[in-house]
# Entry
Amino acid sequence: MRVLLPSLLLAGVLAPVAVAPAAEREEGVVLKHYADYGAALEVSRRMLSPVTHDRVLRTAEVKGLRVGEHQVDLAGERYVLYVPKTQPAAGYGVIVHVSPFDEPRLGPDWRRQAEQRGLILVSAYDAGNDHPVVWRRVPLALHGLAHVQAEYRVDPERVYVSGFSGGGRVAQRIALAWPDLFRGALLMAGSDELGVNGLVPPPDGLMELFQTRSRIVFATGNNDRINIAKDAKVIESLEQYCVSGISVMRIPRTEHWMPEGRALARALDMLEEKVTPAPDHAACREALAAKIGAALDRAEGLIESGDLDGAGQVLKTLDDSYGGMASPRLERITRWLDDAVGAAGG
# Structure
């Protein structure tokens, strides 16, 4: 069985850039700084599975296609941008917020906390759940951070991403793929298990940063039973991937909504806590590496024996479950499989 490239993802990165016009508003700030780390190929490298990203590169090379540098035009976008009056001595902290709605909806409590803590808030309009995640919602969030970094003095130790509901699931993806930028994520009633719905570990060096220094705060209303149950599965998943900085809070008397007042203050306190890797972290990573290595060995053996379907199944599971933690060997074996399938006329 061949490991197939998801055609929609390939089309998204290789197709001509189509800019979705933002609705006209009187409110909202136009930003002017693009993120190099939000360019299309960098988003692909960090967010897509290794096999998918490798095929994006191969398809572009073979067909002579030009990959658009950016998937959005900031001149047509609007943001909420809140800058506290007083800059902390080490520079401003930053929270990049991802909303499930086309309006950010950050209430007055968020601005009060931002003022008290010296945190800049930035959040894009027209980036709700109805918009593409990889090629719109994520780049808009990253460009928001890049603008703040270019215009203000920023403390790199206090850069965070937050999101509510579907925005939380996007924020989780951003924190996972850019742990060199974000020190933590505030996930409010929205998260996904690793290895599910296209959420795969990034290249291993980035994954280790996520495992050892990213603070992940789960803040869900205590009456939001569906997401409490989902959080539990996600936390178990993160622990299996050796992630250290997990914090959990329940928002009193709250259904499916974001923390406010004292609950918000407590969530932000948790978000700003430094991470100390667990004593068994190194052993956990070694066990994962051994598991991945054994599966890659098995895939090679299946190809050598002529069981191409079996090899494809093993490689697809690795690509979906471990992503960049299996790279670059995963891509090499997948290319070998592709060549073997081609030679066999499959």
